[in-house]
Structures are given as C-alpha cells and as structure tokens.
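Researcher: Let's do a round of design. I'm pasting the structure tokens now; please hold your answer until I've finished.
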C-alpha cells in the first residue's frame, strides 16, 4: 500500500510539473495606483505695512462688510489689478480701498489664478487696522513676455471651458473639468520626494500650463474653472493629512471632489480614476481603492450629507469619461462600455484582453492599461500590443498602429495635440519612455463633427438635416450611433407631415403639455400611427424604439397618406426572420420590399434590435425619396 501511494505521489508531481497553470499575478506592478501623495504648502503670513500712517484705520462697518464678501469676488478683483500692474511693468498694487480684512488669506490668490505663475510672485502687507494695504509683486518676465504668457493662459482656459456645452448639467460640467485635470495633469511626485518642488507646482497655473502640480494646484485649478462656469466651489484642506481638495455645490447639495487622489501616481498615461468624485462626508472618509482616508478637513461647516453619487457608475472607472449626445463611454475592468445617461442602460462595446506578465504566457495582471479618447466620432484605445479605434456603436474595430513590442507592452495611450502618445514598459511599475505617432486628420464636409463623408449614413444625415426632419443633439454633434426613442420617432414623422396644429388633451400620463414631443405624439396617436402600452396609460416616451417598431410606424404613416403599401418583401431571406413579431410581419415585408429597410451584416434583419439615429436618417431619406 505504501509503495502504491509513493508511485501515485510521484505521478501527481510529474503532472504538475508538465501542466501549465493559469496564474493571475498580484497587482505588484500597481504600486503607483495606491499612492495618495500629500504636499500641502502653508502660505506665508501677511506682513505689517511699515509705510502706512498710524492714523489710517478701518471703521468696523466697512471691515464687517468686507468680511461678508465672497472669496471669489475678492480673488477676481485682486487678480485683475495685479494683472494690470504686471502688464504695465509695475511692482506694487494698492488694495487699501478694497478694505479686505487680513483674516482673508490673500496669498491664496497666487494658488487660485493661473496667471500668477512662470516667475511671478508677491508679498502682502496690511494696516494696523487689520486690512490689506498693498501687494509687492515680483516678475522675472518683461511686460512683453508677460503679455505673451497671459495670452497663452487665456487660450488654455478658453480651451478647457470650451469642452463644456450649453446642454450639460452641473454634474456633467463637474465631471468634464475633473477628468480634464486628472487626464492632462501629472502629480509632481519626483520633486515632492526630492524636496525640490518649484512654486508653480503648488499653483493652478503650474498644473494648467506645465502639466504638473501637487494637491493645492489641482484643488485651486478645479475651483478656478468651476467658478468660471458659475458653480459654487471651495478648497478645503487638512493639516492632519497634509492635503487639499474641493467641496462643490451640485443642484443644491455639497460633495467632495479630490482630483489629486483620482490621478494615478506615478502617472499612468491616459488613465483617470473617479473614486473621490462627488462623494459625501461619509464616503470621502472611506478607503476607496487606495490606502489613505480623508480626515480633519477645515470646512466642516459645509455638510456633504447627500449620498446620491457615493456608488455612481463612475466609482470604479479608470479612464476619462467621454460624453457624447446622451451617452457616456468609459473603461471599467477590462472592457469599454457605453452608458445611456437618460435610461442608465449599460452595454459592453469591447473587451481589451489581458496584459500578460513579461516573459510569461500563463500569468497576467488583473487590471487593464488602456487609455481612451474620442476623435472624429471614433473611440481610440490600446491593447497590450496595438493602438486601435472603433465606432461609437462598437463596430468597425480597426488597427491604427502596431509598435514593436519586443521590449515591452503598451501600458497606456492618450491624445496630445495632433499626436497619439503611447508608452512601452515591461510591467506597470516601470517609468518607461513616451513615444508618439501622428493623429490623422479628416476633412469635415458636413455640419456635424461626428458625421464624415466616408460613413454610410453621411448623405442621409445631411438630407434629414437640410429637410428640417432631424436636428443634431447639439449644434456640432448629430449622434448617429445614439439610440432613438418612441417619442423622438413620433416627432420625426410629425415634422415630415409639416407640424400640423394640435390641441392638447391628456391622452397619455407621460405626455404632458408644452414639451418638445407633445404635439408629435398626440398627432401620431390621432392619426392611428402610434398607441400607448396595452393595459397602461403610458406612451413610453423614453423607451428605445426597435427596428420592427419603427417599420410599423412608417407603414401606418404610409397608409395614413394613402400610399401604395404592398407587403411583397421576403422576410425568409434573413436568418433571424423567426424573431419578427406577428404584428410587425406585414409592415416589415412592405419596408423590405420597398427598399426602405435593409438587412444587416451576416444576413440578419435584427427586428428586435434598437434603431439608431444614423439608421433612422437613412430610412427617412429612402421613404421620402420614394414619394418624390
């Protein structure tokens, strides 16, 4: 028996030695992702002004009034005065008339304003009465060089503010600014560790203009940009953890935002965290993907007790979030996802594959290391060996560039001006060297930035737009890959009919008076083109419309117009014809026979699939041209 046991153990050992074992490597290469650095600078105290006369004092009434003035108003006023003096080559600014109490730490304006960087510094003086009197300014640039630098700052700020569209909510504006700073910025960790941090690394101007900074730079840059957008924002700090971040007001509630701890350290090209974006007092004190907790902050009078976003969809997103139309695109785990922000529906567009441990075919890292950006209506991303792009609907996945990966895999990519930057490394913890390739430009021959001439729906989109049948989601974006809803398609048919006058009546509980879709739905219902849900008072205004539902509505509209509607199309030619609902067979047969609707790649009709705006434009053009 003992001999048999020994033989069995020997055989088992042999099998283990020759059999490959798929082992997931621990995230030893992800040390940077859990570094949450702290680098708070204590601003110098203002100095008593030796040049002011003792008789100049401040009465209590004026001083009390100035205490009530918002920091934003004070900073903006002082910023303009100091800028004017710098451009004039002056070295002193009088602020005594502003009656700013010395309790306001005016030195923080140097952190706040992106203009006060690149060799600009200042000292602040106050009177015996406790109000600031003057600012001594120092500048290593000439007035001409200063003017040129201020123009560069103007351009940068306008570029960032230009990312915001009028239709964005405050939540979306806060997200776009957060992601810009995290995506474009890099924590100045090497200088922090070496004790050689330059002044600009503490200031918003250093982060925005040079791309590097520490927590104060991130926090004040966020505050500056949010206040430019009219959104209430504060910088809070903690001496206990030597760190600064933001508190922001969104729709009447306050939330914490920490761009610094959402930015991977060391910097990971093209990647952005969201664990500390719009979180409550309770959540900000949790360890959210890192090792440290926020505690001991000073603005405790601002209570962040709304937990609405504590477990929002972006909590574990590690890429910038791209907003386009009604959709958000992002990377979570090992896949690219698309989320419909109006319904909350999420779909996987692309699995990114694995990043194997160098010189191993069995062990792989549990994270993905891809950047994500949108350019000309396409999503650019990277696998471990290729830079690729796909359409916004997850189709037409194409190779952009394949570098030599014999000395390392691709660990990140991003858009930088007119180039794509990428980095090759053997493991995530290496620093690596950035390389770049040109980002090919396409000639835009349409009114919409996301519709180019080579796309199959180009002509149809222009046709529908020029006829006034369909408009863009914004002035520059059509959203061809966005799904279309029942209310949107009813409105489209209503426009084709010429927008006849409608008297409102409460037909459906989700169709109130005076909305953009009210007249279209009521007209379509009165014309026998649409109906509500069976055993329900709802129309389903926000429900996505399927391809067969769209065919049925087109068919009923054609009959309403007394057009010839023979049902002579062959549905059996499609491999999924059995998926056509009984009520839609006649309509789809007509649409196929008339050439209004065609099949998809792979010989399928996809009757239950959601219709998208590009398809809708094509169907509308074919239908209208058929009747011309």
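Researcher: That's everything. Go ahead.
Model: Designed sequence:
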């Amino acid at each position: 028996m003992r001999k048999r046991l020994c033989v069995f153990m020997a055989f088992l050992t042999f099998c283990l030695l020759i059999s490959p074992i798929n082992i997931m490597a621990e995230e030893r290469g992800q040390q940077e992702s859990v570094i949450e650095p702290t680098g708070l600078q204590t601003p110098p105290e203002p100095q008593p002004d030796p040049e002011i006369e003792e008789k100049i004092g401040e009465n209590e009434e004026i001083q009390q009034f100035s205490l009530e003035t918002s920091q934003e108003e004070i900073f903006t006023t002082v910023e303009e005065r100091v800028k004017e003096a710098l451009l004039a080559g002056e070295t002193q600014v009088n602020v005594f008339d502003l009656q700013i109490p010395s309790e306001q730490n005016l030195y923080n304006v140097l952190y706040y304003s992106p203009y006060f960087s690149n060799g600009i510094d200042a000292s602040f003086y106050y009177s015996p009465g406790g109000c600031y009197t003057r600012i001594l300014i120092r500048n290593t640039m000439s007035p001409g060089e200063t003017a040129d630098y201020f123009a560069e700052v103007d351009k940068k700020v306008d570029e960032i503010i230009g990312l915001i569209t009028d239709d964005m909510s405050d939540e979306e504006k806060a997200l776009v600014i957060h992601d810009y700073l995290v995506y474009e910025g890099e924590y100045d960790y090497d200088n922090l560790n070496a004790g050689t941090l330059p002044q600009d690394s503490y200031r918003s101007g250093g982060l925005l203009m040079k791309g590097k900074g520490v927590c104060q730079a991130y926090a004040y840059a966020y505050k500056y940009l949010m206040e430019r957008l009219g959104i209430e924002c504060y910088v809070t700090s903690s001496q206990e953890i030597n760190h600064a971040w933001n508190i922001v007001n969104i729709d009447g509630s306050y939330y914490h935002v920490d761009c610094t701890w959402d930015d991977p350290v060391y910097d990971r090209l093209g990647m952005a965290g969201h664990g500390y974006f719009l979180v409550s007092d309770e959540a900000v004190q949790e360890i959210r993907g890192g090792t440290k907790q926020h505690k001991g902050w000073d603005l405790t009078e601002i209570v962040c007790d709304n937990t609405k976003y504590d477990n929002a969809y972006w909590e574990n997103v590690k890429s910038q979030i791209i907003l386009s139309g009604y959709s958000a695109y992002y990377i979570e785990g090992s896949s690219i996802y698309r989320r419909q922000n109006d319904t909350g529906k999420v779909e996987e567009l692309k699995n990114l594959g694995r990043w194997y441990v160098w010189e191993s075919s069995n062990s792989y890292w549990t994270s993905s290391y891809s950047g994500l950006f949108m350019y000309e209506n396409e999503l650019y991303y990277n696998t471990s060996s290729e830079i690729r792009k796909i359409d916004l609907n997850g189709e037409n996945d194409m190779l952009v560039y394949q570098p030599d990966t014999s000395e390392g895999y691709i660990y990140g990519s991003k858009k930088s001006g007119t180039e794509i930057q990428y980095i090759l490394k053997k493991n995530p913890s290496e620093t690596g060297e950035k390389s770049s390739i040109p980002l090919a430009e396409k000639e835009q021959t349409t009114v919409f930035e996301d519709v180019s001439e080579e796309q199959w729906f180009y002509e149809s989109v222009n046709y529908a737009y020029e006829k006034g049948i369909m408009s863009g989601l914004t002035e520059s974006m059509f959203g061809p890959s966005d799904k279309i809803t029942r209310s949107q398609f009813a409105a489209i048919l209503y426009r084709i009919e010429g927008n006849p006058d409608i008297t409102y009546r409460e037909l459906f509980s989700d169709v109130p008076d005076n909305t953009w879709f009210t007249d279209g739905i009521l007209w379509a219902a009165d014309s026998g083109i649409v109906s509500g849900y069976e055993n329900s008072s709802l129309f389903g205004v926000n429900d996505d419309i399927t391809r067969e539902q769209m065919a049925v509505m087109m068919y009923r509209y054609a009959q309403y117009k007394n057009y010839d509607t023979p049902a002579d199309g062959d549905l059996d030619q499609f491999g999924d014809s059995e998926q056509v609902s009984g009520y839609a067979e006649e309509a789809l047969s007509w649409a196929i026979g008339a050439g209004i609707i065609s099949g998809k790649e792979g010989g399928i009709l996809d009757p239950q699939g959601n219709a998208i705006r590009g398809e809708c434009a094509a169907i509308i053009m074919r239908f209208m041209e058929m009747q011309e």
